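Help needed: design a sequence for this.
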């Protein structure tokens, strides 16, 4: 399940409360898996940039340094 939340003007207390509700209390096993749309090699940053700027992606764009 993916939950999109925008914290434009949220205070840190609100953010922490949301994280605790979604992931459990501190000390619990917490795993966050981002929705990765596409991974480019680090040398492909020139190709990745237009996808990010143009709003073509449907998730995170990552760069792999290997």
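Sure. Designed sequence:
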């Amino acid at each position: 399940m993916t939950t999109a939340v925008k914290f434009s003007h949220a205070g840190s207390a609100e953010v922490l409360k949301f994280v605790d509700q979604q992931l459990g209390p501190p000390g619990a096993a917490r795993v966050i898996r981002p929705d990765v749309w596409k991974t480019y090699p680090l040398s492909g940053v020139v190709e990745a940039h237009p996808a990010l700027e143009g709003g073509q992606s449907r998730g995170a764009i990552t760069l792999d340094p290997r």
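DSSP finds two helices and two strands in the chain.
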